[in-house]
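Dear Dr. K.,

Following up on our conversation at the group meeting, I've run the structure prediction for GlsB/YeaQ/YmgE family stress response membrane protein from Gordonia hankookensis. I'm pasting the input sequence below exactly as I used it, so you can double-check it against your construct before we proceed with anything downstream. Let me know if the numbering doesn't match what you have in your notebook.
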Amino acid sequence: MLGLGIIGWIIIGGLAGWVASMIMKTNAQQGILLNIVVGIVGGLIGGFILRLFGVDVEGGGLVFSFVTCLAGACLLIWLVGLVRGRTKV
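The predicted structure tokens came back this morning:
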């Protein structure tokens, strides 16, 4: 992610996880650590899916990285809700 290293992953992941938890209405159930984890894992999921479609995720820039993490985090929260049986589709 643009050479930001682990600190960049934590910051972008934390912000993306926090915004995703507000979008998916799970913010009250998640703390800062879980937001960071959800954002980072969401970034991995989003990057994987975009690579399947041939999108260059490495050269996308900071905003693209954030949007990728955000979309992946929302998908992750939705999938966890499906597994737990609490969906609002």
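Two things stood out to me. The CA atoms of residues 50 and 56 lie 8 Å apart. The mean pLDDT is 86.

Best regards,
J.T.
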